[in-house]
Structures are given as C-alpha cells and as structure tokens.
Amino acid sequence: MEEASLKKTVRKTGESPGTLTYVGRSKLKDVLLTFTEYGEESLLTKTWKTRKDFIRFNQRTEHAPISWLNVDGVHKPEVVASVGNTFHLHPLLQEDVVDTEQKPKIDYYDDTIFVVMKMAQFNREKSRLYFEHVSMVLGPGYVLSFQEERDVDIFEPIRTRLQNASGQLRRSGPDFLFYALIDTIVDHYFAVLEQLGDRIEQLELNIIEETDEKATHELYSLKREMILLRRSVWPVREILSKLQRGSNTLLTPELQPFLRDVYDHTIQIIETIETYRDILSGLLDVYLSITSNRMNQIMKVLTIISTIFIPLTFIAGIYGMNFDHMPELHERWAYPAVWGVMIAISVALLIFFQKKRWL
Amino acid sequence: MEEASLKKTVRKTGESPGTLTYVGRSKLKDVLLTFTEYGEESLLTKTWKTRKDFIRFNQRTEHAPISWLNVDGVHKPEVVASVGNTFHLHPLLQEDVVDTEQKPKIDYYDDTIFVVMKMAQFNREKSRLYFEHVSMVLGPGYVLSFQEERDVDIFEPIRTRLQNASGQLRRSGPDFLFYALIDTIVDHYFAVLEQLGDRIEQLELNIIEETDEKATHELYSLKREMILLRRSVWPVREILSKLQRGSNTLLTPELQPFLRDVYDHTIQIIETIETYRDILSGLLDVYLSITSNRMNQIMKVLTIISTIFIPLTFIAGIYGMNFDHMPELHERWAYPAVWGVMIAISVALLIFFQKKRWL
Amino acid sequence: MEEASLKKTVRKTGESPGTLTYVGRSKLKDVLLTFTEYGEESLLTKTWKTRKDFIRFNQRTEHAPISWLNVDGVHKPEVVASVGNTFHLHPLLQEDVVDTEQKPKIDYYDDTIFVVMKMAQFNREKSRLYFEHVSMVLGPGYVLSFQEERDVDIFEPIRTRLQNASGQLRRSGPDFLFYALIDTIVDHYFAVLEQLGDRIEQLELNIIEETDEKATHELYSLKREMILLRRSVWPVREILSKLQRGSNTLLTPELQPFLRDVYDHTIQIIETIETYRDILSGLLDVYLSITSNRMNQIMKVLTIISTIFIPLTFIAGIYGMNFDHMPELHERWAYPAVWGVMIAISVALLIFFQKKRWL
Amino acid sequence: MEEASLKKTVRKTGESPGTLTYVGRSKLKDVLLTFTEYGEESLLTKTWKTRKDFIRFNQRTEHAPISWLNVDGVHKPEVVASVGNTFHLHPLLQEDVVDTEQKPKIDYYDDTIFVVMKMAQFNREKSRLYFEHVSMVLGPGYVLSFQEERDVDIFEPIRTRLQNASGQLRRSGPDFLFYALIDTIVDHYFAVLEQLGDRIEQLELNIIEETDEKATHELYSLKREMILLRRSVWPVREILSKLQRGSNTLLTPELQPFLRDVYDHTIQIIETIETYRDILSGLLDVYLSITSNRMNQIMKVLTIISTIFIPLTFIAGIYGMNFDHMPELHERWAYPAVWGVMIAISVALLIFFQKKRWL
Amino acid sequence: MEEASLKKTVRKTGESPGTLTYVGRSKLKDVLLTFTEYGEESLLTKTWKTRKDFIRFNQRTEHAPISWLNVDGVHKPEVVASVGNTFHLHPLLQEDVVDTEQKPKIDYYDDTIFVVMKMAQFNREKSRLYFEHVSMVLGPGYVLSFQEERDVDIFEPIRTRLQNASGQLRRSGPDFLFYALIDTIVDHYFAVLEQLGDRIEQLELNIIEETDEKATHELYSLKREMILLRRSVWPVREILSKLQRGSNTLLTPELQPFLRDVYDHTIQIIETIETYRDILSGLLDVYLSITSNRMNQIMKVLTIISTIFIPLTFIAGIYGMNFDHMPELHERWAYPAVWGVMIAISVALLIFFQKKRWL
C-alpha cells in the first residue's frame, strides 16, 4: 500500500505504450495467486505462491462454472503478463494493471469489462492516507482481481460470504461477484471518512480551546488528504454510472438495483468529502480570526500598561534631573502634588480605555 | 432525531448488501404503528404498539380503498422487515429505511416508488440542526411512511386534514397523500430557514456593534449548519424533478401542478441557503476587517503615546546624570529651557501625527 | 414594498396547498382595481376601490377586445380569490399571487401563462433595496396584473403609451401588453443598478483616500444588496427563456424579437450584477491591504523612535546611578563623550533603518 | 470612445422599445458617412459629412456589386434612423445601434445578420480601458458598420486591403467583408492584452522588490479592467459560435474556416484574460504575505531592542534611587558588578532570540 | 523553446489572415528537415539543412509507403510555406504552424487533420516552465511535424522505436505514427509534473520548518507555472476527445484504444495540476497562519517584558526624584520595601500571563 504522495506520477516518456513497467515501490515479497471456483453447489479454493505453479494452473480453468482469480502483488510484471496472456487481455489493460499511478477508470474491451480503483486506508498515527491500486476484470464466466500488496486481504469478507451456499453471491453469476468486489472497495471509503470525521471534530475542539501552530499543520494535512481522497473517489462515480448505463451482455439486469445502490454510496462519499472540505475551510477562517483576536488582546494589554506608565515615568524623570534651579523641588507640597498629578493621569487614561471598550 | 454530526457515516464494510442494521443511536422506545384507511366516504384509524399486534393487522389490509401505514421508530429492524415482507419490498429498500445515514433519494422499484428524505429541526438553545430520517413508499393503493422517532409526529397536520371529508386529500388517490407527506417535510425547511435567518440578522448586529470571539464561533457554527442543511436539501430537488418527469402509472396527471409547486419550494429553499452562505461569508470579511481596524487604532494610541514620551524621558534622563562637569546644570535658564525643548518636540510630533491622519 | 430582509421566508407548514394567506406585512390600505379595455379604435378605463364594486364589474367584461385588470394591493386574499374565480385561475396560481415570498417564476396552466416577478427599488438614504411582488396572468383576450402596494404605480408609463392610438401597444394583442408589463419591470432594474454603480464608484474613492470602519459597513451592505438583487433577477432569465422557447397559442410570432430584446436586457443586468460583485470583492482586498499597509507604517514609526531612544535612555540611566565609585563621573571629558556615543548610536541605527528601507 | 465606467447602464424605464435615444456622452462632432462600392474589378469610395448628402446617396446604391456603408459617430439618432429606414432595419436593431450600453450580441433578422461588438483600447497613461460601441449589419449584397467616434478609424486597414485587387477581400462576397470587420475588432483585443500583460509583469517586479501602497491600487485597477474586458469579450464567443453553427444563406461555406479561426482567437483572448486574473490573484496573495512578513521583521527589531534594554534601564533606575540606606551604593565592586549583571542579561536574551531564530 | 511569459500575445491587427509571420523570438539557427520513409520492410532517413535541399527532396516523396517529414525550427516562414505548398496545406493551417502563440487545437481540413500542441519542459535552476510550439499534420500516407527549436529533438525516441522492424509502429499506418507523436508530448507532461511535485513537497517542508520571504516567491512562482501549464494542457483534452469521436477515414479503428489511453493520460495530468493547485492554496493558508502565529509569539514576548518592567522602572523613577521632602527616602526599611513591592508586582503579572496562557 502506498502513502498518498505528490510526486509519483512518473511515466517513461516516449516508451512504446503497452510496455509493462511496475511504477510503484519495488517490493521483495512473493506474488500470491488465489483461485476460487464456485457454483450453486460447489466451492473450490487454491493458492499458488510462484509463477511456475501458476502456469500449471492454466491448464485447469476451463470446467468450473464461475472462476475468480485474485493476484496479490502486481510488482512482478511477468506474472501479470502471464495471467494476461492466458485470458487474452489487451496490452493496454495489462499496462494499467501494473501502473499503480493509473487513476480509477472503466474500459470496455471486446469481451471484458476492466475497472481500476483505489482502495483507501487511513493510518491514524501518521495521520496519512494510503491508497492501494486494485484492478478488476469481468469476462465471460470469470473475474480477475489484481491487488498491489498482500499484507491485508481486502477481499477476505467476500471469501467468507462465498462459504454461505445459500447466499446471493453463490446463486448469482460472475457479474455479481464483480459488483461485490467494487462494493467492498467503495464501503472502505466510509470507514476512512469516519476516521477523518473524527479527526475534524477533534480539531474543531482544539482550535476553539487553544490555538497553537500544530492545529495549522493538522488543518493543512487534513485538507491535503481530502484533496487526495476526492481525486481517488471522483472517477469511481463515472465508472459506476457507465456500468449502469452501458447495456452489456456481461451484466445481467438483476444487477441493476445493486449497481444503483453502490452508485448512491459513491455519491454520498463524494458529498461527504465536499462537506468536510467546506467545514475545514470554515475552521481555517475560525483559526485565523481567533489568532487575530488574540493578537488584539495582547496588544491591548501592552498598550494599556505602556500608555499609563510611560507618561508617569517621564514625570518622575523630570524631577530626577539635577538642575541647580528647580524651584518645585524645594516646596513641601511638591512631592504629594506630583503623586496627585500621576494618579489623575492614570484615572483619565483608564476612563479613556473604558470608553474605547478596551477594559 | 439526530444532532447533525460529522462522523456517523459508518458502514459495515464487506457485509452483504440488503442486511438490515440500524445505524442511528439505539433507542429503547417502543415502535408505534399507525394505520389509516380512508376513502371519500370513510376514515378509519388504528394504532399498535408491539410487533405482535402488527402481525394480526396484516390479515386485514385488503379491503380499504386507500391504506396509509405510518411506522414511528425504525430502530427495530425486525418490525421494518415484517412490514417490508408484508408489502414485498425489495431488500435494498428495507436497508435504506433502516440506514439513518442514507442521504435523500428516490428509487423506482417494479410497482413502488421509494423516497428517502430528511426532516430538519432547529434547536435554538443549542444552536444546532437535528435531522430525522423519513422514508416513504407509494404502492398500488397504499402509502407507507417510516419515521425515526415518535416524540414529535410530523404528519399530525395531515391526519387533521384527512378529517375534512370534502378536502382534496380525501377526494384524491394515494399519490396525493404521498405528495402531501413530501410537501410537509419540504415546508418544515422554511421554518428552519426562518430561524436561521433570525440568527444571521442578530449576528449582523452583534458583529458590527461589538466584535468578540463569541461572534467567530457563532459564525462558524452557522456556516457549518448551513453546509449540513444544504447537503440534506440538495438531493430533494432531484427527487422532485424525477417525480415530475417520470411517467409512472402510480402518479396521476392531476398531481403534476402540485409536484411542480413543491419543486419550486425546494428551489427556493436551496437558493435561500446559498444566499445565507454568501451573506455569512460577507460577515466573516466584515469581522476580519473590523478586527484589523481595531488593531490599527490600538497601535495608533500606543505609537502616539510612546513616540511623544520616549524622547522626553530621554532628555530628562540626560539631566539626571551625575557627571561632575555638566555646565548646563548650573545655568538659571536651563530648567525652563529644557521644558521649552520638550514642549517643542511634543508639538512637532503632534503635527506629524495630524499630517499622517492618526489623530 | 418590502425591505429586502432575510427572515421572511415563513410558510405555514402542513397547511393544505392552495390556501390563500397573505405573507407580507399586513396593510390597512384599500385595494384599488384598475380596469382598462382597449382596441385599435377605443380605450376605456375604470377604477374601483372596494370589492363590492368589483363584483358588479364582473358582469361586464365579456365584450371588450382586450381587457387589462390591474389589482393594486394583494393584502386582501378575498379580492384576489374573487378575481381568481371570475377568471377561473388555478388555486396554486392564486396562492402564488398572495405569497409575497414566492420567487420569480413562470407557470403554464391550461389556457393561461402566469409570471411572478419582483419590482426592485433602491432607497438612497437607507442604502437598502426594496422589492415589490408583482404577478401577471396572460389569458385569451385579457391580462391580469397584481401589485403589492399602490403608492407607486409602476405601470403608469404603459397607461400613458396606451393613450397613443397609433402606438404598437394599441395595434397589438394582449401578449404585447403582457410583454410591455414584463419589460417595464426589467427596465427598472437598470435604474437600480445605476444607483448601485454610483455607490460603488463613491466607495472606490472613499476607500483609496481614507480608510475608516464605515467603508467596511458600506462594502458589506452593498455586497448584501447585490446578493439579494441577483436572487430576484436570476429566475427572470429563465422565465424569459421559457417564454421564448415555448410555442404557445397565446403568444404571437411578432412578439419574438421583443421577448429576445427583454431577455438580452436581463442577461445584461445579471452580468452587471456579477461585475459589481467582482469589483466589490476587489475593493475588499484593497481595503484589507491598505489597512495592513497603514499598520506597517504605524509600526515603523514606533519601532524607529523606540529603537533609537531606548538605548540612549539606558545610557543616561547608567550615569544617573548613585554609586560612590563611578570613576567616569569625575572626568572632564566624560559628559561630552557620552553625548558622542549617543549620537554615534543614533546615526548607526538611522543607517540601519535606511538600509531596511524603513525611512 | 468611452472610458470603462460602472454606472452608465441607464435606460429609460417604461419607454416604448424601439425609441432611438443616444445613451453615450453627447458629442458635437459631425457624422461621417463613408461609402465603398467594390467588386473584383472596380473600387469606388465616397464620403459625406452631413445628413442631406446622405439622402442624395440613397438614390444611388442599387447598382454596385458589394456596398459597404460605414457610419462614423452614432450620436445623431436621426442619421441612424435615416440609414436604418433606407435599408429597412428593424426598430429594435436601430435602437441597439444607438444604445452604446448594449453588450455584444448577435441577432438574426429576416434578411440581415446584426452583430454588436466592443472595440477595446488601452490608455497607458491613465491605465484605463476604453470601449467603442461598434455595430455591423450583413444584408444581401451590402454591409453596414456603425462606429461611435471618428477620431480613430479602426477599419482603415481593411480599406487598405481593399485596394489590393487580387486580395481575397475583393474576390469574395459581402460575408467576407463582414468577417474581416469582426476579425479586426477581435485582433485589437490581442494588442490590449499585450499591454495589460506588460503591466502585470512590471507589477510582479515592483511587488517583489518594494511593496508600497501604490502597488495595491495598480493591482486593483488591473483587476477591475480585467473584469470589464472579460465582460466585453465573453459574449463575442457566443456571437461567433452562432455564426458558425447557423446555416444562413448570407454566409457562404468558404467562410467557415475563417469564422473558426476568429472563434479560436476569441477563445484564446478569453483564456488569456482568465490567466491574467489568476495571476493577479496570486500577486495579491504575494503582496499580502510580503506585507505581513515585513511587519514581522519590524516587530522583531522592536522586540529585540526593547526586550534587551528595558530590563537594563530598570536596573539603572534602581541605583538611581535616592534612598538613604542602600548598602550596595557604597561598595567598591558594586558598579562593575552591575555592569556584569547587565551584560549577562543581554547575552542571555541574545541566546534566547537566537534559539527563537529571530536573529 | 520559450520561457513561459505573459506578454507574447501580440498579433498584427488588421492584417490579412493567412499571412505567415513568425511571432516567437527570432533565431539565427538553420532549419533542419528530417525525412523518414518506412514500411513493414524498409526504413529510410534523410536530413537537409537548407531550403534548397528541401526543394530537391520534393520531387521524391511519391513512392514510399509512409512518409514522415519533421521540420525543426519554424522561424523561417518561407520554409514552412514551401512545405505547406508541396502538401497543399490551407493558408490558415500554415499561419498556425508559424504562430508560436497559437494555443493547442485540432482542425479538420478536407483531407488532413491538423493538431497544435505545446511541449513542456521545466528548468530546475530557473524554476521556470518552457513551452515549445509543435504542430502535426496527418494526411493520406504522410505525417508532417513542425518543431520550434532543434536543440532537443523530442521525437528521437520515436525514431529509435522505428528501428525495431517488428514494433507496432512499423506495422501500423501513418495514424499510429501521428498518435505516437501526440503520446510523446503528453508523456512529457508527466515528467514536468513530477518535477513540480518535487518542488511542492520541498516547499511543504520549508514552509513548516522556517518561514521566510523566499517561500512566498517560490509559492507564487509555482502557482504561476501551474496556471500556464494548465492553460497548455487543457485544450489537449478536447483535441483527443475530438479525435476519438470524429469518424475520419484517416484514423483506423485499431487506433481507438490507444487514443483512449492517451486521453486518459491527459485527464490524469489535468487532475494532477488541479490537485497541485489546491495543495498550493492550502500551503499559502498554512504560510499565512504560521506567519501570524509567529507575530503573536513575538508580540507576547514584547508584551510580557514590557508589562513587567515598565511599572518597575516607574517605581525606581519615583525614588530617583530630587524633592527635598520625600519622607520615605529616609526610612531604613524603605529600600527593601520597594524591592518587595517590585517583586510582588512581577509575580502578580506573571500569574496574570499564566492565566492568559501566554507563558
């Protein structure tokens, strides 16, 4: 899974399109291939760890009613190429599976539907979003899914649901499995949004109670994550809208309400992101006006103290002068009189401040 | 009814869609089912408090011309499921009835129209918006309505209007009742807007008269509520637009002008919200420029006082020095001369400030 | 006429739609009905002050070629209802005539076209906009117009033009009269815009010459009025666009260029409002940067004076100390030397400020 | 030519549409009519200065292959009316020729195409835009052009090109002349944009080098002119788009690539304006942050000097007190000790400032 | 290659369209013509340096299956004209080849497709974008490409790929070469974006760690480059969308997925630019709030020091006065008492600051 970063948009300029180059961080882990064959009555799961194994598996796929091949780890282009060639996937499709910088999109090829999505995860400690590049292919009788990393298997709940022989997943075709994969990814965004919402509510309290520089960084980083999140969800809306509208033999009409449902969820996610962005903008305004308000208060204190004591100190300075001829110095009433003048000045200034509402 | 909060967008990732889980705050109150049967000549109302009663009612619904079943409290999924199964509602529809985080939307099912809306209420003391999740189903000959809580019965005025045997409600079909329910919810937004408008006008006065930190919080909280309000009204526009355009046998042509009317109201509400947001942005600008203006005034006072007295105090300091050989100290005219210099400096500075328009 | 206020959006929640309730400020004045019958050769004008008279007039309307009934003052719902029933107007139409909060809109009913508009007026002394709710109905052979108040008769110029037997108004059908009424209201916006433009140009000068807190209030209030103005003009564009596109037997093809003309005017008004808003935003930026610039200047003066004199005062303080053993005090050259050091410090600081471009 | 001002949007409310009233500044200059007749083989130019002459010319227009009548100065409505009646122009078209506040637009009349545009010119000394109202009519075999003032003849280059007998202008129909007039006006915007671009680049340098109040005014005035410029160019886009799409017998298919070309230029102008506006917004941000940065620096200097010397001056003050019993005063080591303390305090504070990165 | 500048939008007003004038910076270098003829089996490359040579080449083009003529350096209009006439290019097309200010666009001529694009390059040292004007023509059996400068040959990778006899480039028609040229330019944007992303991440760190004036300039300059970049990429989207939709005999159906691929890349580039702009806006907000926060801290230090010592200095001043009758001066306990009062004041003020959270 990759930390949401700005600069990993590199592409190899001038290279022939369709060349498979892994763009993400190079990883040393093995590829894990999970193959599931299921129908209303049967369920069979196998896993391979190396490419060699996979080649053997190639000779066996034909007989199962619905096949689902999940490829965990796309950092070995040769494995992707090998799967791709088995299922006759277009070179550009294979390129998009490996290009972890590819934004979410849907492509219709002759007999397959290809969807790229981003799986979002929020790391609370680092306060950072991580995205995982997930590609899915729906073909006649089979579904392929490619995940970037295999630490977390995001499709585990679907495997669990497949155990349930009477579940809709077992009774429906590959298009329903395809939908279930998309739905799982979309649902993950809700979890991320909830965590971000938590952070925003915390930040709200922090900013109103005590305004320090950390709040600014938190605000900025939340805004930034929101921008990156929106960028990964926004195209999903179009993917689902195209899936709904497009009349394709791969998609059964019974799937329509489910596609509409996940489409609605996407809209809800997008609107929540927009709402959060608006609220974060509002928070920035609050922050700035609280800061400038505090500055005002600090300045008031400084001004009140300075304005009162500076003239008084001046008067004291006058009578500290060592001139030989200062008649006031020798009068009995002079010292109390000076005190009187000083108090009068202080009171006058305090009344002035009162009028200005500075006290 | 729920306080408008940011973080309640949780969904159970990976769960099979169509599973009924109540997402709102769990409540201990009983469910209240209100059943109304009416025609041009008859009107019959019954209420049940438990699910058992409701099952008995199931055997009786067939004969009435128009049936309206209002379910108060959706926190018991089993009741919703029981009603849903009686009327053969789609599992996704039932899920949306229970999911209080579902945004407003319209769905067409085979023989029913399903509308989700949010009932808004403004708590003046807490200065917070509350939203209630309301779902409505229009089927052949019946209307179902689901409310989140039953403290306030928002559909009471409609029951009162049903008493009037010659009213349009009694003379029309279930689609008119369906419209009347939607219209009631839309009209509630006007009341909320009026209260928010009141707050904004009060805030306008507060900000211009005395600018304290509280105004910032009020501004922010009004902006925030406005964002949440817009989010709940915006989809209503599309719901009504779809109801108007969609040619559906459930909706009679006579309903058209009424749908247009409630659509116009929605537009008016949305525009008022936008207007309020613009005005609140303007208020923030006023607040910030008033704050910076006051800072300027404070600084002017400090600068004037400091700038006049600091040089004078310096002069006094000079002649307070204890050097043995300071010839000026022994001159008769020295003391008055120093006073003269001091007054000259003050006058010069005052003229300088006058020119700078600081006085 | 009503002052543009934020909070008058109240609606009677849950009431049966089509109920006539006057929402504006209740007025004690009488209703004034002005009835005009005209054709190419004849022109007849009558006025009634009470409802009783109006009922008598009902029996006479049939024979005139073109009838125009102007109802001044919509605060008596029973009069509107009585007119409405005579001309068989839809209950929702009647409701919109009386509801002074209804935003501008166009509705097509079976044999009538109904237009709601807002007549704008600018009160220079209060610097506030006032809107008057005006409704117009075009039916076969007749035009009805409803105004909110009768102090100012905005349609007077049209009556004057009707005197001219050879004018286009007399030679054309009721649709041309309908257009002339709309055109009059749209033209009024130009006058309001001119007055607002005057204010903005004045404000430009004020802000650049002397920046005080009043300018902020003026800026805010102009922005606010602009928002309210836009809100009342924006829907007019759609009204006219619908009138142009809609092929309706009530509208003759000869009217097309005139409708296009008034549509162009509306666009021009909207664009001017947007331009004014942009300019006001620019002015706010100028205001804020001028304010912060002035602050800078004030701070510079304070800093220069303080920075020069504080060290000098410290030196004077040193030699004002009363220690028994301060050898410098007894040297002849000490006093002039101290003066020398002080002047050197001042010059050094002045050079420093010069380099910093603070002088 | 008129200075771009805000308030000249006056219209005569309630007047009959089609009345010719000159809205611009009344001018005393004569009207100048320039009549050009040309074909592939012939070219004939005549000018009249008074209306009487023009009437004589009316009897002569029929025989020339292509006629171009240019009316310089539209401040005499009677001349426009006279030309208008000769060519049977619609009264609303004539009104728009005279109304110098009319925004750019295109109107199709039965056998003519009518285009209104604004000719932009930039006065470098005043740093202000000037707009000239130009109207053009394309009819069967003739082109009419109306300019507001005749000091500068903007169409002179076209007359020069007409001299070239083998030029495309001479070989094409009146639609090509019509296009050439529009193209000339659009090209003028490029010149204006170049001058504005120059100003912006200058302003960039000024703001980064020395930030004074003048830069704010310049920024504001450039923003303002940009708003006015955009307002005059924006509708041109639609004019040209309509000309391209509309299939009209007046426009030959050969003109299409040329219309597309001038349309592209308009898009380019609009985008440049938007780019300039974005850059100006960026400049304002730079300006504000530079200002606040400088304030910070000023405050730092003040704070460092004050914070160091205020405590020192206090210590000096202590030992300047005249109490009879101050044992320290009589110690030999006291004076150097005080100096030691003072230096220690200064050094401690300097280290503190160093840590805070204020030095 | 040209530095991205604001003011080079000059056009020669009133000139006949179709006149070839080079608008870019005049260059003294020679033109370089590279001619490539290739088919599945053959590949032939020739270069000419002068126009004379080119004329000789004209007599040879007919026999090769696919011809690609690359013209490096468009500053010699006569060469462009000579190529243009050989291939019968429309005069407006030739004008756009030479006009380096022409924005990206696509034009369909009778038997050619003409595309203008901007090649972006980022100079890290100057932190500036450079754009190169590139035009491409696809005709039956040939492709023409025109580059502004010949220091860097951006199409070199394509020549390398042409060496590979089994590559798709060699096996496909001229439309694939045309696509490959476009793809190369679009891919270059990714490299530029990566460098800009680097700069932004660096800036993020800089701003959060130490906020100096340079960061503002960097921020502004990145924003500016982003605006210019967007302006050059935005129209590319439309070019590719038109290429995809337009059914043209020059484009084979096999090209469709490749066009879709490069279209997706363009979308991705545009979205990255928008994301960067949003992030830069966020950074500016951080910068401003950090600045104002630092100001607050500076003011706090000044206020604390001043507020504590100013009253103390005043007290010291009081007892430095030289009045004859100041009874306190002669008391034994007076000096320690004054110290006590001073310490009490300091402690009280420190507690006050503690409460205000300034410490």
UniProtKB/TrEMBL annotation, chains A, B, C, D, E:
Keywords linked to the UniProt accession: Cell membrane, Ion transport, Magnesium, Membrane, Transmembrane, Transmembrane helix, Transport
Domain of life of the native organism: Bacteria
GO MF annotations, alphabetized: cobalt ion binding; cobalt ion transmembrane transporter activity; magnesium ion binding; magnesium ion transmembrane transporter activity
Alphabetized Pfam families for the sequence: CorA
Localisation per UniProt entry: Cell membrane; Membrane
Any one of the GO CC terms: plasma membrane
Membrane-spanning parts: 301-321, 333-353
Membrane topology, record value: Multi-pass membrane protein
Biological role stated in the UniProt entry: Mediates influx of magnesium ions.
Family of this protein: Belongs to the CorA metal ion transporter (MIT) (TC 1.A.35) family.
Protein name in UniProt: Magnesium transport protein CorA
Higher taxonomy: Bacteria, Pseudomonadati, Bacteroidota, Cytophagia, Cytophagales
